[in-house]
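Reviewer 2 asked us to include a model.

Predict the structure of this chain.
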Amino acid sequence: MTAATQSREVSSTTKTAEAGKELEKLASDHGTTTIADVVVSKIAGIATREVDGVHDLGGQAARVVGKLRETLPGAPSLTQGVNVEVGERQAAVDIGIVAEYGVAIHDLADGIRNNVINAVENMTGLEVTEVNITVHDVHFADDESGEEIATDAQPRVQ
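Predicted model (structure tokens):
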């Protein structure tokens, strides 16, 4: 075994021990705490939006529905683009994003993954087994104004 392999094993053992302590908090002599899927979804959605380089969450259909929802009174959906599976002790998170153009997508995904894992584990005590990220699109700074230019332009064929 190499030194790098040994250090990974030590850190994973430490992480498992820390997660075990957190899980003890979910069940005690006085009762149990159950965390709903929507709670984990909201935490993951907020944690994802905190990362620089994320333009929006969700695929095209989810973003269209989100835009319609924004026109109605009330708060925007914090769970758009986020799907979770929550068990008694673990959670798995799937996130769909639109990245800003020019951002290194692999670094963005690592940042999102770290932020989501830290937020969910610290706030719920659940162990996050995986955070899967799908990049649906890349947003250009002039995307919104691009549609206006196309409608004002002269037709190509007369």
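Residues 150 and 157 are 14 Å apart (CA to CA). Residues 1-21, 146-150 have pLDDT under 50 and may be disordered. We have added this to the supplementary material.
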